[in-house]
Every structure is written in structure tokens, then in C-alpha cells.
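In the laboratory, one determines a bound structure by crystallizing the protein with its ligand and collecting diffraction data. In a computational setting the workflow is compressed into a single prediction: the sequence and the ligand go in, and a structural description comes out. We illustrate the idea with glutamic acid.
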Amino acid sequence: MLRFAPSPTGDMHIGNLRVALFNYIVSKQRNEDLIIRIEDTDKERNIEGKDKEILDILDLFGITYSQLIYQSANLRFHSAMALQLLHDKKAFSCFCSPEWLEKKREEAKEAKKAYRYDDACENLPAELVIDNMNPFTIRIKKPDATIIIKDHIKGEVSFEPAEVDSFIIMRQDKTPTYNFACAVDDMLADISIIIRGEDHMSNTPKQDHIRASLNYDKKIEYAHLPIILNDSGKKMSKRDDASSVKWLLEEGFLPEAISNYLILIGNKPPKEIFQMSEAIEWFNINNISKSPVRFDMDMLRHINREHLKGLDNKELSRYLGFADEEIGALAKVYLEEAQTTKELREKIQPIFAPKIIPVEFEEQANLMRNCIQNAPYFDSYEEFKNHIMQETALKGKNFFKPLRLLLTGAEHGPDVAEIYQYLKNYLGEIVK
Ligand code: GLU
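The predicted complex, in C-alpha cell form:
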């Protein structure tokens, strides 16, 4: 079983989508189920409606799953497992107040040392624990040996007991911390491999230690994906528009192109342009580079154009808000100068919109409009052109400029001779 575990705390980032795609692909390759776990236990950070948005995006990208779980539904298991650890003396109640711990943290900072819990509450006499009415957290006892994590991307990474520390698993309000809820849920779901962002690497020994303390001896595999950097070499954040999947979709990038790009970067694919179904054939998680990858907008635009070329005309037409096949074919001509559906729409819509004609061509355009409206249907551009030329007695620039303006609403663009075949059935509507 694999899982994608988004937090409903913000817009879906391309890094999250990359994680979701890789989980999906590996689940298909291994013939295992993929579950979605919405990690909603941090009530203060949850944003209403974000879960729905994330699920809609997964849907759009063809990432199907066998089950949807909300982490908050597992709270009783988290409490039960924490009690189990207390009972087994693998965890202890900690009465240190948040203020006290903050003071200790400050002291460590001033001494330029990494903060570690001093285990003050670990060995409290039983009578001090049982009748104690003060609020308490539950801490798991730190491991007594080095924890070695084998990662498909990072290789072997080891963590000393002090780094793992005796950390909090249940807060004073009896809610589980992220590491505890996550470790327990992965265990309950019988997860075989965890694929997630490398920002979680430092959580991994903690989660491994939690499961070992609960006597779960199945070894979960890991793959921590490197972060995606922006143009200036910094981690892509909310401030970078392109980090938001929603933004990319609004800008007119196709889901299949975004997927293609996110599978391509930091990888060794056999080809540049592909569909997800093909990636399932050759994808190898071990081939993912361990160094960060830089987001390259030009590359994404190039890939998007290639996917737009590959759409059938009717489908492309629908993306642009039309129904007819001809408009899709026409849009493909405009792919010379446009790379997203938004840019294509900006080219195609003016063709059907009322035209703004510069004063110097107004007279010629009016004459020509009249003539086109009354002309018979011509299958060939040559015949159409000859007819209009003859009827209007216009030539050269005085003919071609107003003709292009009337037919396309733009001063420049593809050869009118080339696009006439897609426009000829709509001439009345175009020049109205
Ligand atoms: N909820 C975590 C996040 O969105 C993911 C945790 C995980 O994959 O283990 O970053």
C-alpha cells in the first residue's frame, strides 16, 4: 500500500503534485493500492475547502486511489498507541511547561548548542506522576542505538539517538503530534514505501523509532524527493506563482504537460515527451537525482506546446471554449506563436470578436466587409481572394492589411492563406 498524505493547509504546490505522481506511478508498477490521507490534525492551520481542492487536482491529473482517509478519524488509535507506549515504559508523561521548555531552548540557542530535552521527567517517581493534576505531554523515550534509514534516492542516512531526542508524541490537549499520527497511520495502513519531499527527512528516524517502539518490525522503504528551486536558486515557495498547481492550470498548462515535466526533471527518462501511462513502463524511483532541481519555465512551455500539438482537434477546440474541430486545427497553426491554452485563447477569441480597425484602413475594411458578407462560398483561398480583390478593386497593402484585420483581429500572425481553410465556414460571423 502507498499513500499520498497532503495537509489541507494551503494551495497544492508542484512539489506535492510531484510526490503524488510518483506515488501513483510506483503503486501502479508494484500493483499495490494508493490511499489518500488528508492530514487534518493541526486544526489551527487547516483551511476550509483545501481538501476538496486537492482532491479535484488529483482527479484532473488522473491520480486515482482506492481509499480516502481523514487523519482526524484515527485519533482514538493515536491515543490507544500512546497509552500502550506509556504502559510499556517506552514513553513518559512530561510536566514541563511550554514556558520552561522555551527558556531551555533559548539557553541552548545562546550557548550555540542544538536544543535537546533534558529528560527531566523521564524518571519521576510514580507518586509524582499518578496524582499530578498538572497538564502534561507524552514523550517517547529516545532510541538507544543509531537509526539507519535506507532511502531509494538519498542512499543510507544515519541518525544518532540524541538527534532523535525524547520528543513529544501527544500534546497537552491530548492530540497527537504530526510525527506520531503519521507513523501510526502508516503502520495501520500497512504502507510499503513512503515517497515524500526531503523536507520530511528529519522526521523519518522519529517515525521509524515510534513504530519500532510499538514493536512493528516491518521495514518501510523510503524515497525522499529533492526540493524544486526557483530561478534564483531558492526553494520554490508560495511567492513563486509557478509553484501553485492552480496557477499553472489557470495559465493554460495542460495537466498531462505538467505531469510530463514533473516526471522529467531530475530524472533519466528515455524520451522527453510522454504520457503518464508510458512513464509507468519505464519510471525508476532509483534514477531520481538526489540534488535539487531547478524549475525551468521555458522547458515546461516547450513540453506544453508538444502536448497541445498531440491533442485531437476537437479536444483542443473544447479547451479553448469552442466546439468545432476546425477551431482546434486553427489553434494548431497558432502554436507557432503560443504555448498555452491561455495564449491560444488570446489569439483565437479576437477572430470572433468585433474588430477594431485603425482609421487609415477603415474605409477599405468597410468595403471589404460588405463584400465578404455578400460573397458566395469559396472553398479555396485563391478563389476567395481573387473575388474580393476584383469586387473591391483594392490591392497590395490596402487589400492585405484590412483583410488580415477583418479575419483575425490582429495586425500580424500566420499566413491568411494558411488559416483560410479553417475560417471559411465562419466568415459571416467573423466579419459581422
Ligand atoms: N502532510 C505532510 C505534508 O503535506 C506529508 C507527510 C508525509 O508524506 O509523510 O507535507
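The domain at 354-431 is CATH 1.10.10.350 (Arc Repressor Mutant, subunit A). Keep in mind that any predicted model is a hypothesis to be tested, not a measurement.
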